[in-house]
Amino acid sequence: MSDSLEGRVLVSYGSHGIVELADGTRLDCAYRRQVGRPVCGDHVAVAMSGTHQGVVEDIRTRRNEFARADRRQRRQVIAANLDQVLIVVAARPAPSQDLLERYLVAVHSLGIQPVIVLNKVDLETSEPAAPASPALLRLPAYIQLGYTVLRTSCKGAPGTDALRAAVRDRTSILVGQSGVGKSSLVQRLLPDQDIQTGELSRVTGKGTHTTTTTILYRLPDGGHLIDSPGVWEFGLWKLDDPQLARGFPEFTPWLGQCKFGDCRHASEPGCAIKAAVEADDIRGWRYRSYLRLLQQNEAV
Questions:
Q1: Both 71 and 31 in a single domain?
Q2: What is the dihedral of CA 282, 145, 175, 61, to 10 degrees?
Q3: How far is CA 113 from CA 64, 148, 161, 246, 279, in A?
Q4: Range of the domain at 279
Q5: pLDDT digit string, tens, across residues 101-137
Q6: pTM score, two decimals?
Q7: How far apart are CA 115 and CA 186, in angstroms?
């Protein structure tokens, strides 16, 4: 592989995909069966097989993997090498009781930094009588826990400047339930999305199925945004109990200190997590969210 070139996968279609080289050249590349199937965002080694065609000879070690659940609730990797996951919530539709917690836990389990984006903040003034979701009322507490919370609106102040700054020079993806305004935010961040999609189509000579395909786009101010339509609207995969506990960062100082090594931090005696809750070192509402997610996880 001495003559191979380094590149990054912009979009992957079954047995081939489009790879962008360091100089900006884009190649329609085939995948060798023995190498495996790279995903959007993978760094790969490519050998030329034609003027604008190549073959992926190696998938470089991934820094992390971004996954979603398939229809059987199994973990399915769809992208790699992200810097952050932007979890979009809004007053309408209001997030369910533990939706934000479950998103945060999932992102932590992937080894990626989560950022909370409160979109449609214009509704705070246009619908002042609407009752606030308990999850949204707790956003100040999430900030105290160390999470970044951004406020955005596509219809007025404060706009999307804070979000634009947060994604600059980073690789990001937006997730969230249907109706929270992800598509509008993507349009603000990627005003030339249709142009970039057309460029990808010209490389392959085929249309890109943007309604079902995960694509890595260049951001105007530097960095990349992964757009994956419908991501995380069909539920999350099953996590094991230790992954679930590690998804609550404030549990970390007490993990491994329980009386039993396989403690689930529920009803077991000698649980260090429960003791920390009783001592107010861990917020009670967060622990109760953990217990509900633990019960839901058993049902998946």
A1: no
A2: -90
A3: 11, 10, 20, 13, 28
A4: 241-299
A5: 989 999 999 999 999 999 999 887 665 555 678 889 9
A6: 0.90
A7: 16
